[in-house]
């Protein structure tokens, strides 16, 4: 066994270390995609509930103020009340995200075993 890492030893282990870094980056991107999809789903559900509440409150306000001409007359503005409903569009987008994202793999270190048996790396793969 060698006492120190020589230049040749380091070169022989560079590719496996690069592969490990690539796997770490891929895992990070997958995790970010999963979290983004979950956040969009939660926000979409929340926005749908808010939209329903706003429309209900507006209807109640219009009924209460109808004898005075409605809220638009009281505020002296021309009103056109519209709350866009993008629930279905966002749901479709998150569905496509779910289809594109594979299930998160189970933590398993067996993928690194072949890297530790790389020829010329007597000390195994350097730890990151």
Automatic annotation (TrEMBL):
Highest taxon of the lineage: Eukaryota
Q: Name one Pfam family in it.
A: TLV_coat
- Which region ranges are annotated with the description Disordered? 108-128
**Which PANTHER family does the entry link to?**
VIRAL ENVELOPE PROTEIN
User: By what name is this protein known?
Assistant: Uncharacterized protein
